[in-house]
Amino acid sequence: MKQINIAVVGATGLVGEAFLELLGRSDLPIGQVHALASSRSAGKRVSLGARSVAVGDLNEFDFAEAEYVLFAVPPSVAEAVIPRAVAAGCTVLDASAVWSAEPVPTLIAADVNGAQLRGTSGGAVIGLPAPLAVLVGSVLAPLRAEIVLSAIEVVAFRPVSDRGRPGVGALARETADILNAKARQDGLLPQQIAFNLLPGTGVAASNGYLPDEVGVAGQLRRLLADPGLPVTVTLVEVPVFFGVGAVLRIETRKPIALERARGLLATVPGIVVADPDEDGHYPTPVTHSASRDAVFVARLREPDGRAGLVMWALADNIRCGIAGNALKVLRALVAETG
């Protein structure tokens, strides 16, 4: 298998750093890895598995030097720079959400609809879904062999790292200020996040749903190839650094036995069906999913009065939900080209 050259745009961000770490420890036939960021970060070194590479200036990079490019940058940067990479013939993996919206057809969670990557050629742009959509889709994928979905309801607990390094900094700063009896400074979020829960941020549409909730619902329908599926998403911002958790309730046409559902989930590499430990403790972001590549499922049960399932699902939003999915997509693309 020939070696591949890869560029990572946003190499100093949370997603870029996680992807480089995973990439450096993978068995892919890697040639050159170009870590790219703004001119302010040029010259810094970032980890690539067990070694490090210097960060280059994005504005000066010639995309002809790479076959594959991951974009993990703000949408405005991706919108301006992705056309350069496409014009150079690169296959682009876009984690910025610019190309993950409709009507672009290629939105990929590798464990859900990775088969759609067959036939992908250079110059293609592949949208990477939000971590929550990857989490829910990955849990539903093995179950769909035996169930027909009637509806999905997701109540998700969104960590501050979903907003990148500024979100992590905001929670750390607010926590320190409160513990030191200091007044809260104006921050990234409109309300205090430390020691608090925010039942949504931003301006809701006339139907009460927030843009991110609508976005995740739309991504799930696309990943599951079911455009008419009723999907309800509620996002709650929580004072957690890493790890997206969700209470997932699905309605099905016919009942499925709990033990059968557990068996289907447990046979999938990367999914851990977690029973409580001897003290009755269930998976949490801190104790289980942080810096892990696995999806955890627990508290599997039947909803009252209707066919379906209710469960608690959890994964590291950065490492598993974005960087891990990007690496799986890259692996599939490389296998396609031989």
List strands and helices in order, with pairings:
Elements lengths: L3 E6 L4 H11 L5 E8 L7 E4 L2 E7 L10 E4 L3 H13 L3 E4 L15 H4 L11 E3 L3 H10 L8 E10 L6 H15 L31 H13 L7 E7 L6 E9 L5 H9 L4 E3 L11 H5 L5 E7 L6 E8 L3 H19 L1
Parallel strand pairs: 1-2, 1-5, 2-4, 5-6, 6-7, 8-9, 11-12
Antiparallel strand pairs: 3-4, 8-10, 10-13, 12-13
Helix pairs in contact: 1-9, 4-6, 4-9
Instruction: List SSEs in N-to-C order.
Output: EHEEEEHEHEHEHHEEHEHEEH
What is the terminal separation in angstroms? 6 Å
If helices are DSSP runs of H or I spanning 4 or more residues, what is the number of helices?
9
CATH class of the largest domain: Alpha Beta
- On the 0 to 100 scale, the average pLDDT is 92
Number of strands: 13
Structural class, judged by helices and strands?
A: alpha/beta
How would the global form be characterised?
A: globular
Radius of gyration: 20 Å
List the domain count as a whole number: 2
Query: In percent, how much strand structure appears in the residues?
Result: 15-25%
Biggest sheet: strand arrangement: 3-4-2-1-5-6-7
Tell me roughly what share of residues is in helical segments. 25-40%
CATH superfamily of the largest domain: Dihydrodipicolinate Reductase, domain 2
- Low-confidence stretches at least 5 residues in length (pLDDT < 50)? none
Q: If classified by CATH, what would the architecture of the largest domain be? A: 2-Layer Sandwich
**What name does CATH use for the topology of the largest domain?**
Dihydrodipicolinate Reductase, domain 2
The largest sheet, given as strand count, sense and whether it forms a barrel, is: 7 strands, mixed
